[in-house]
Amino acid sequence: MDVWTTCKPFVTGSMAGCIATTFIQPIDMVKVRIQLGAAKGGSTSPVEIAKSMLRDEGPRSFYKGLSAGYLRQVLYTGTRLGLYDKFTGMAMVPGEPLPFWKSTICALGAGGIGAVIGNPADLTLIRMQSDNLLPVAERRGYRHVFHALNIIVKEESAAGLFKGYQATAARAMALNFGMLSFSTKAKEQLSLLGCAPGSASLVFGAAAVGGFFGAFFSLPFDFVKTQVQQMKPDPITQEMPYKGPVDCALKTFKAAPLRFYAGFPTYFMRTAPLSMITLIAQDVLKKMWKDMGV
């Protein structure tokens, strides 16, 4: 029972994340294509990109990289949600609401740690989603997430699995801050307005607030992360387009600052529902464990 008590928050987070990503994967595919298109001056219309994918690659293209998506949820979401529960449990004073500054620190810490642990899966997901945009001769051709991990280690060493981890961690900290800190605060405020604990209005309302702020704060970091993780050396000079996340951010800012928010409607349609489904699924699973007496 002690082992299950320790593992339960992480198992709950992993399951909630996998449930959410099953529904959101097609939108995530379009979001990644929009960001890559924006960086190269291409189309950022979600409708046009979705039509192009359906026409040129078929319906299955919307679920390309799903195996990496599931692994990412187990490693990343399971860790960040599990650690957030652990951290807030340690920070909470019995009988008092958790101050916003404490929940913020808990969210930032859990998000950063979870991102580093989940970076290998996140890296493979981005590469699998963007592979068909590369010239045929330059495509990586990963068959599934474990094939991708094996190839990356062979060609780029184990350190290659953590390419772009700084941008991934920054994005995760921003997402966790918006998603979890504001969701926790919304639950507190909705309770004061009379919403009963565990009620649909409380659960859905707090999830909606967390989903919006998670998307708003994390998109610029997500844009940089996508550019860094999918970049390849120039075929002639063998130089990378960016030296790292900071260089990518500076070059993007100089070229077009609003590019950081390219595809915000699609990103919001992906991130907000993902956050909402994850938070709702987490609450449902917690209630299920309680009803089961475990």
Automatic annotation (TrEMBL):
<dbReference type="GO" id="GO:0005743">
    <property type="term" value="C:mitochondrial inner membrane"/>
</dbReference>
<keyword id="KW-0677">Repeat</keyword>
<feature type="transmembrane region" description="Helical">
    <location>
        <begin position="267"/>
        <end position="285"/>
    </location>
</feature>
<feature type="repeat" description="Solcar">
    <location>
        <begin position="98"/>
        <end position="189"/>
    </location>
</feature>
<feature type="transmembrane region" description="Helical">
    <location>
        <begin position="190"/>
        <end position="217"/>
    </location>
</feature>
<keyword id="KW-0472">Membrane</keyword>
<keyword id="KW-0999">Mitochondrion inner membrane</keyword>
<protein>
    <submittedName>
        <fullName>Uncharacterized protein</fullName>
    </submittedName>
</protein>
<feature type="repeat" description="Solcar">
    <location>
        <begin position="198"/>
        <end position="288"/>
    </location>
</feature>
<dbReference type="InterPro" id="IPR023395">
    <property type="entry name" value="MCP_dom_sf"/>
</dbReference>
<keyword id="KW-0496">Mitochondrion</keyword>
<dbReference type="Pfam" id="PF00153">
    <property type="entry name" value="Mito_carr"/>
</dbReference>
<keyword id="KW-0812">Transmembrane</keyword>
<comment type="similarity">
    <text>Belongs to the mitochondrial carrier (TC 2.A.29) family.</text>
</comment>
<feature type="repeat" description="Solcar">
    <location>
        <begin position="4"/>
        <end position="90"/>
    </location>
</feature>
<keyword id="KW-1133">Transmembrane helix</keyword>
<dbReference type="InterPro" id="IPR018108">
    <property type="entry name" value="MCP_transmembrane"/>
</dbReference>
<dbReference type="InterPro" id="IPR050391">
    <property type="entry name" value="Mito_Metabolite_Transporter"/>
</dbReference>
<keyword id="KW-0813">Transport</keyword>
